[in-house]
Design brief:
Elements: H1 10-17, H2 22-35, H3 46-76
Helix pairs in contact: 1-3, 2-3
Length: 79
């Protein structure tokens, strides 16, 4: 078991957080549809993109803090 590769829970937790940010995702997708026909190249959806990922990151942060608290409890509760 000592040779097992450590697993990064970030991707798993991100996928679990995404459904809670569906409003931001829909806003981003609607913006992308509006912008796809822009020939000037001046329109973009950067704000909506960052809003979506900020939502995911905020939820991910609280999930990681919870995991860290559980791990710390498990280590400190050992005899």
């Amino acid at each position: 078991m000592a040779d097992a590769e450590p697993v990064d829970p970030k991707n798993y937790l991100e996928e679990r957080c995404k459904p809670q940010c569906v409003k931001s995702l829909y806003d981003y997708e609607r913006c992308m549809k509006r912008v796809e026909n822009d020939d000037s190249g001046h329109k973009h959806c950067t704000g909506q993109y960052f809003d979506y990922w900020s939502c995911v990151d905020k939820l991910l942060q609280s999930s990681l803090i919870s995991l860290n608290d559980v791990a710390a409890f498990n280590v400190t509760s050992l005899p």
